[in-house]
Amino acid sequence: MAVPARFPEVTASGAPRAGGTGRLAGRTVSRVGFGAMQLERLRTDRGAAIAMLRRCVELGVDHIDTAQFYGHGFANEAIREAVRPADDVMVVSKVGAEPDTEGPLPLRLAQRPEQLRASVEDTLTTLGLDQIPLVNLRRTDTGPGLRATGDQLVALDDQLDVMTALRDEGKIGAIGLSSVSLDVLRSALPAGIACVQNAYNLLARDDEDMLRLCLDEGIAWVPYFPLGSAFDRMPKVTDEPAVIAAARELNASPAQVGLAWLLHHAPNVLLIPGTADPDHLGANVRAGAVTLDEATLATLDAVRGRSGDIALNQ
Fold this sequence. Notes:
The protein is α/β, with parallel strands linked by helices. It has one domain (21-305): NADP-dependent oxidoreductase domain (TIM Barrel), CATH 3.20.20. It is built from 10 helices and 11 strands. The strands form 3 sheets. A 7-stranded parallel beta sheet has the order 3-4-5-8-9-10-11, with helices on one face. A two-stranded antiparallel sheet has the order 1-2. Helix 2 (74-82) links the parallel strand 4 and strand 5. The longest helix has 15 residues, at 113-127. The relative contact order is 0.15.
């Protein structure tokens, strides 16, 4: 497998692009971005949340992934305060769920077209934007998490109708999908899809055919749970012996090796690891500079032993 070239380009802040250069909805972004979900842990220290986001910019991160239901708007409010127009940061949001203050979980599904529109409107307000550059529609077709029932079972076409209307109105710039099956993605392609966010990592490659389709169609692949999760018994990449051995050889952490493998695996992969710890943020960004030689890549690719899982960069 060919190793991706390291690009000399810098962000608007003058920092080298974290992980090199990628493309998202027609824009150039750093391949290592930031997921804002864990900012809620800093709710009682707003200054720390602002500082975390400013540190992202300083480290060459110019792609931040957020949602209105992250901390009931706290993440969006922090982004609005911290990120300046001159930073030229691409802020990406998602719809399909909403905060739930009274239920057993902090969020509930919001799949109906009127709910999708309301979520976009709320996000525009909390972010202080006239347009959200990219909005991902979070469905429940696949992956861990909630499943739609009752009036939350909404046809894809009905959802895409409102998403394309919002795009035509200029309220969103591009449409992405999250937690979708291969068939759903194929059905959605005529609407113009810029991004897919699915659970995917070294140990969970069931969506390899979808990643390959995205690569062919020029669609960014932005995996969540890039290192696995205890959620729904997803194995942790950092516990895999081959990853631990590679980390020891490279003087890196197992987490950095797991993230670096994703970047090496296909050129359309963009990462949005999240954290509320500045040191962890720095380690995530440095994963973009970890080089995996062909022997190490072959060893990691063989963990799953699937012929379709390798050579996307060749």
